Amino acid sequence: xxxxxxxxxxxxxxxxxxxNAGLASLSPKTTTLSGQQGPNDGTxxxxxxxxxxxxASFIGNFVEWFDYAVYGYLAVxxxxxxxxxxxxxTALLLTFGLFAISFFVRPIGxxxxxxxxxxxxxxNALSLSILIMSGATFAIALIPDxxxxxxxxxxxxxxxRVVQGFSAAGEYAGASAFLVEYAPANRRGLxxxxxxxxTATGLLLGSLIALLLSVSLSPDQMDSWxxxxxxxxAAPMGLIxxxxxxxxxxxxxxxxxxxxxxxxxxxxxxLFRKHWRxxxxxxxxxxxxxxxxxxxxxxxxxxxxxxxxxxxSGSFLATTVALAAYIGFIFLTGLASDRFGRKRVLITASxxxxxxxxxxxxxxxxxxxxxxxxxxxLLGAMLTLNDGTLPSFLAELFPTKIRYSGFAVSFNLTNxxxxxxxxxxxxxxxxxxxxxxxxxxxxxxxxxxxxIAVSLAKETSKAPLMH
Length: 467
Hints:
The protein is mostly helical. The protein contains 23 helices and 2 strands. Strands 1-2 form a two-stranded antiparallel ribbon. The N and C termini lie close together (about 10 Å).
């Protein structure tokens, strides 16, 4: 069995493939599963299949992060609905606390989805996870508020978010492994960048809908029923995503592994026994992603409205502009990691956050709308250097037999500890320290951890995928 993924033509329409993109053109030949290049004899992967792989990987993360975006952007309204008797800051802390608690089940989800993905296939895991996740997201819209059922309202919200967090644990890792194992060897970074692009697109749609609701509905309408509308969209999107996924074959790498009957019975056990060093490196590398993603792209509207004093419409608009720029930068980062290496790009990201984060939070404090937009675009661009590179970096750290497990465990464990708590920690640090710069210092500390971890890793971009 070869260690390489099939060398296939990059599908038209994927960002970075335009004639003026400056990329070397790929060979018109395909590569068979044996690794030998030859004419298209039916053993290669077609362009139409690759497009469907991209679409299937995109939509699940899109639905997941659309939910997280709406929850984060409408946190103040949700706090009113579920914690009306608490003061404003305490209600926000409780709302973000529920957000964080739902992340604590993600490591458990990582173990289970990783086991399913490595034992019975990436496709099967992804097809099931999107169904559970979209159903849980839809259920949030149906929960009565505190004024109707009392304490049962936040309890039900917690239970639904726990189910959502468990199911979402398999999405990011599974989609990344799926894309990397289908991608041409010299474009794994570009293909894997589809995953963070899908998360940002989910956030972007969430931001746009939150902006639309905030300007078109009265505060009373938002509190009573307006906040529920975005969550209702999860059901149809989830069904579409599942339909696309069940129509696909599994990745060439997994099918070859299955054909040779080399799947491990207990991939997570093998991960901790034989691959603990790359696991520790992966956990450290994810810290900046975990904190940065939530602080820069999810917490920021709340920070701008509650701390800086920007009106809610302005804070949503600033974040929407930054997200649009972020999506464009993501694919450029994927290309850069293919050309210059994963390690170099990830180290650059960490250094920039160490040096620039606190000064940029000082600029946010000026309250100048144009400055705020420029700072958010710059923060988003810096974050893409990490986010756009991390999926391919993590997938390449582990062999095919445990790739899903290694990615899912490291990514979800770190996000449980640092990502899900980022909104809560940022709010709490401001309250305890009295400094509006506290989230900036927290983000800078996360960058230091990732800098150390990535520095200990080997470069993987030019090497074939491990068997």
